[in-house]
Design goal:
This protein is an alpha+beta fold. The termini are far apart. The chain has a 5-stranded mixed β-sheet. The chain has 5 helices and 5 strands.
């Protein structure tokens, strides 16, 4: 599923509202996870903190008409891209949230599906795109070492 620009804007706006709650310049907040909960039936997107306090809401109409079995996989890619873009724009740099914290995709029962983005100065979250081809590279490296 490819999100329309309108839906992408609605999601970005909900995430921006969430971030706005943590950019007040007051003392730092301890939040370990920000939960992003899309509902494939209703098309609603909720964003919660780790104490289940609702931070933002959006209604994404095209989700409710999606009929595929891979809803969460498609949404995961889209949300990860949006969050990475927000991070690259530096919008996560000055928040009053103590690091590390993560954005987590959860289902309707608030069960974790995937870590979308880990925000930490010292840790890199590996995903399948980053690991693609790693086996071959390591095999080549080992072969080269053994030949010497």
């Amino acid at each position: 599923m490819e999100l329309s620009q309108h839906s992408r804007s609605l999601i970005e706006s909900a995430i921006q509202r969430t971030l706005g709650r943590y950019s007040c310049g007051c003392e730092q907040t301890i939040v370990t996870d920000i939960h992003i909960q899309p509902n494939p039936t209703t098309g609603q997107l909720y964003i919660f903190d780790d104490e289940d306090k609702e931070l933002a809401f959006a209604n994404i109409d095209e989700w409710s008409s999606y009929e595929g079995d891979d809803f969460y996989e498609c949404i995961e890619r889209s949300l990860r891209n949006i969050l990475c873009q927000i991070k690259e724009n530096g919008e996560l740099d000055n928040l009053t949230i103590l690091k590390p914290y993560s954005f987590v995709l959860v289902d309707e029962d608030k069960e974790s599906i995937s870590d979308l983005l880990l925000v930490d100065d010292d840790t890199l979250l590996l995903n399948s795109e980053l690991l693609q081809g790693l086996d071959e590279e390591l095999d080549d490296f080992l072969r080269e070492l053994l030949e010497k």
